[in-house]
Amino acid sequence: MTNKEIKQLQELDAKARGSEHLTSEEINLWNELEYKRNKQNIHFTLSGINKYYKAFQCWDFTQYILKNGYRRTKPSDIESIYFDKNSITIRLISTAETDIERFNNKNELLNFVIGFNACLSEVA
């Protein structure tokens, strides 16, 4: 995402959380900008009516791992996380990479992420 797009998304977020109403054009722009932000670390195609939901689930999962770490990987050791068709991978600050999980296909990967997030919401 460009800095201009990030700024637009922040402005629309602030407007939506405030007392102002968004126009249909602003809602569409907001959805597309959020989708673009959420899909930055996903390296496979999302399509269909649930692409926004699936991208958000991956973004939510990423934010949790970056904040809390995963298994023996501390948050301070994590540079980024990305999603390939068959794996979720942590890129470490030391430039090494480690897979969180490996899958047979992207549907298994997405179901794992959605289930992980659902478990977190039940615990919280």
Report on the structure:
With 124 residues, this protein is an alpha+beta fold. The protein has two domains: 1-38, no CATH class; 41-124, no CATH class. Helix content is 53%, strand content 15%. A three-stranded antiparallel beta sheet has the order 1-2-3, covered by helices on one side. Helix 1 (3-17) packs across helix 2, helix 2 (24-38) crosses helix 3 (51-68) and helix 3 (51-68) packs across helix 4. The protein is globular and about 45 Å long. The relative contact order is 0.10.
Features:
three-stranded antiparallel β-sheet; 124 residues; 53% helix; alpha+beta; 2 domains
SSE diagram, text form:
Blueprint: H1 3-17, H2 24-38, H3 51-68, E1 78-83, E2 87-92, E3 97-102, H4 106-123
Antiparallel strand pairs: 1-2, 2-3
Concise description?
The protein is an alpha+beta fold and 124 residues long. It is built from four helices and three strands.
**Total number of helical segments?**
4
Q: Could you give the count of β-strands?
A: 3
Helix residue percentage: 40-55%
Straight-line distance between termini? 31 Å
Shape: globular
Order of helices and strands: HHHEEEH
Query: How is the largest sheet built, in terms of strand order?
Result: 1-2-3
Structural class: alpha+beta
